[in-house]
Amino acid sequence: MDGQGLPGGPFEQVEPLTGGTQNTLVRFRRGGRDYVLRRGPAHLRARTNDVLRREARVLAALDGTDVPAPRVIAACPDESVMNGAVFYLMTPVEGFNASVALPDLHAGDASVRHAMGLNAARALSALGAVDHEAAGLSDFGKPEGFLERQVSRWLTELESYSALDGYPGPEIPGLDDVARWLEERRPATWRPGILHGDYHLANLMYSFDGPEVAAIVDWEMCTIGDPLLDLGWLLATWPQHGDESAQLAGPLGAAGGLPATGELVAAYAERADAVAGRDLSSITWYAVLACFKLGIVLEGTHARAFAGKAPKETGDLLHAITLGLFRRAQAFIAS
């Protein structure tokens, strides 16, 4: 921090932040300024440092845009400074995660929750409006063939779970039908942009005093791809009464009063620079792909539970959500 010319002095008000991330977050104050430090867990995973470097780069690129996200203050890609860990310092977010708890204002007013839902789509459209090349991210991902490789990529991932001891293989009704439909209906054209990669309500922070999105968080999956997949991801995970996926949204999903999925698409479309060159008439395809991809990702924990590498109750819960996602994919197709 001293080498970066940041304010000096003692470290004050140091506290760890929790909320579901596997990485380490620590908030502190120094020299009259507040910071959040983000680094990998105590026992670094194979790709943790590369992921942190990518996060810091994309968040820095968003500076100067109106995308609600933490801003990078300083980043340290050098692993030797913190005992092998890459880290960065970012601005704190004054907000709450609605999948964890709802303040009284939001819990008690359905109109506020309805606006929270619409603002989730609007925050995403702000990201979709960013010109990734102008932001210095032209080499950040591999957009060529992005849509073409999605189905085969995730079927290969699903097949890899068979290497886990005890896993009997995927028992997912509709798997082959959904995969076939996706391959047959793939959009012919699309415009690349920044893809968050895991856009749902649990990765949003909301303002304490209203329905505004304070920040999009957890950028671990970000790349350059088709931003409409983020919108499809939001639709795929959107809470519906009696559906297993509502558990992903916690108290906000349980409270209800949220807009219908069609309203989310309309809110996204309000911003012309987000939809220019993008075919929102194909949004059902992206929602089905999101169900397909997320279902396969969650099935991985179910498979690891058979091998004793994850709790059985967690594996069973996520398998139930996977089945629900494939039912939702089939409902999207039927509609």
Automatic annotation (TrEMBL):
Start and end residues of each stretch annotated as Disordered: 1-20
An annotated Gene Ontology molecular function: transferase activity
Pfam families on file: APH
Gene3D superfamilies: 3.90.1200.10, Phosphorylase Kinase, domain 1
Residues of the Aminoglycoside phosphotransferase domain: 14-247
Name of the molecule in the record: Phosphotransferase
Organism (species): Actinomadura physcomitrii
